[in-house]
Amino acid sequence: MVKRQQRSTSYRRVARKTAKGTNLVKVKREDKHKASCAVCGKEYIKKKAKVKSSRRPQRMYGGQLCSNCLADVLKYRARLNESKIKQEEVPLIYLKYVVG
Ligand SMILES: [Zn+2]
What we know:
By secondary structure, the protein is α+β, with helices and mostly antiparallel strands.
């Protein structure tokens, strides 16, 4: 009899052949972690990828910020560089990305 916890559909069944030649069926927990924005928490990639580096877009703060938050960060950074606003006026949640 299969263990009760392994009858759950949230487990993935993986067939493996051992060095001896016997067949095994391993039961693995699916990786639930998805890439999400560090500021707003939005999941910003729907595609399924195996490793974290292929889950992130190749742009500034890819894998950290979603496109909307990145646009805000760049907006505040430009305004700060032009001295149109002061550093105190930047929202605290963006400050790390605007200054750093
Ligand atoms: Zn965001």
